[in-house]
């Protein structure tokens, strides 16, 4: 199982809306993530900095690369682009994090 961590940035003042949208995550998006081999996925918010910390477990992290080409993923990015720092294609600017410690 691969562990993947990354950080993104929420636009200040959008904490409640970000939570709401994820509480109402689209079933077809959840299905797509599971089809890509993701078995756990969490996002944490640092309220002082508006930084989002994402962590997921995937059967094979190379399968995650195919998500960007999926129409449902592109629609989700567009839906979220008004409350996050994004790239020109509306994908969130995401910085991978290097694992420096793990205690199984």
Automatic annotation (TrEMBL):
It holds the Pfam family rhaM. Its EC number is 5.1.3.32. The keyword Isomerase applies. GO terms for cellular component: cytoplasm. Keywords: Isomerase. Gene3D superfamilies: 3.30.70.100. GO terms for biological process: rhamnose catabolic process. InterPro entries: Dimeric_a/b-barrel (IPR011008), L-rhamnose_mutarotase (IPR013448), Rham/fucose_mutarotase (IPR008000). Coiled coil: none annotated. One of its GO terms (molecular function) is L-rhamnose mutarotase activity. The keyword Transmembrane helix does not apply. This is L-rhamnose mutarotase.
């Amino acid at each position: 199982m691969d562990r993947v961590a990354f950080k993104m940035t929420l636009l200040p003042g959008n904490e409640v809306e970000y939570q709401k949208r994820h509480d109402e995550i689209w079933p077809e998006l959840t299905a797509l993530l599971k089809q890509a081999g993701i078995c756990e996925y969490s996002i944490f918010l640092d309220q002082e900095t508006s930084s989002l910390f994402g962590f997921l477990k995937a059967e094979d992290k190379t399968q995650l690369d195919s998500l960007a080409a999926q129409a449902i993923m592109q629609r989700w990015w567009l839906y979220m682009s008004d409350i996050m720092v994004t790239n020109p294609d509306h994908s969130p600017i995401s910085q991978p994090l290097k694992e420096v410690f793990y205690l199984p």
